[in-house]
Design brief:
Strand content: 15-25%
Helix content: 25-40%
Number of helices: 13
Largest sheet: 8 strands, antiparallel
Shape: globular
Radius of gyration: 22 Å
Structural class: alpha+beta
Number of strands: 19
Length: 463
Amino acid sequence: MGDALTWFAGRLRGELLLPDDPGYDDARRGYNSLHDRRPAVIVRPADGDDVARALEFASSGSMEVAVCSGGHSLAGYGATEGGVLIDLSAMHAIHIDAAARAAWVEAGTTAGQLTAATAAHGLVIPFGDSPTVGVGGITLGGGVGWLSRKLGLTIDSVEGVEIVTADGRFLTADEDTRQDLFWAVRGGGGNFGVVTRFRYRLHPIGAVLGGALFLPATGEVIRGVIDLAEAAPDELTTISLITRLPPLSIVPSEAHGRLAVLITLVWCGELDEGERVVDGFRRLAPPIADLLHPRPYPDMYQLIPEAPRSVTNITYSFAADDLDDEAIGSILHQMEESNLPSTEALAAVELRVLGGAISRVPIGATAFAHRQRKLLCSVVAAGFAEADTDRHRVWVQSLSGAIRHLAKGAYLNFLDAADESRLHETYPDGTYRRLVEVKQRYDPTNLFHRNLNIRRAETSAQP
């Protein structure tokens, strides 16, 4: 690797990190600390030319390529053992054309950075619920968050991309140019190249009614939360967490450790109407804590104290159309203190009610194939000591096994490394066949395989 590395380093405008360099260990560390890999080389490109050079260098040495934007891959795909990690975090330029309601954004930008920049113009792009997620990862996978029912998935606001393919070509893709590639990158992940820039459509937004509402967790409350969220106007999007309350300052001390439904929500419409809709949730049970009030949308990212850069995490997630009484009973049973793997770590079930604008985009318009599903359900254990991994994995497997009969698909960005066999839950046959065709056209050697991988020879067992 010596001569090739010297040649590469001499042509690189960005930063190159080797295992003995200061900052290497921090740079290689992703969100999920259970995936601990050591790249031979970490490249932080300054621009698309650097990306192309990094791909050429990796190919010349038959080295595996991994790409990360914000490093939040639950499955640890934004890392490689002994390969070349292309870390896009230094590419975070934002160009906003407020008059055209459009923005060109480099892929290493975080959702928090971009939301703050667009909000200064009274505009927004629908991202997720974490400010540190890179726009590259969340966008390529689909993008579900607090504005989804009103504005759709993140990919529904993408108007074009610039991408470097495996052979080093710089390509653009949009509704008029390379429509096949544009279709595939909206939900197909990083299978087709390194997207360096996105063109997003911007949406006007003013003050929202948002925040968090803590309710006691009972079967009636859980059912009520789901039913109200499904029946609400599109202006309301909810993300609910069923968990035992940690010792947060915003929660009365007597409620610490109590089983609760933590509802975070955003109403982006007329505020008086929003108060009437949200009051329905308050009436389900006397709130433990009520932090709902009008606020600028970027303030939603300040609800929860800044999360650590890396944390242990095991998640099992699926798309469904409902949570039946049997599943709700299983959740409540498994959340009893005597059944938890530990009291120090987070053990939770997350429920994201879908519908609205998500479901009104034709299913075949993008590679995100589950637009008609009504719910995303995730069983999560996080923040435990690595020595306790097995106990927490058993708990996740036990609870997910008890409610998995409801599964009707999966969401790419919420899959763990153990979920590679669930490829066709994410991409049903028709979607998968189209993705294979695009993969063969733009990455025939499968250089980009550190992802939920689209493989040319693979066929589905589904009818």
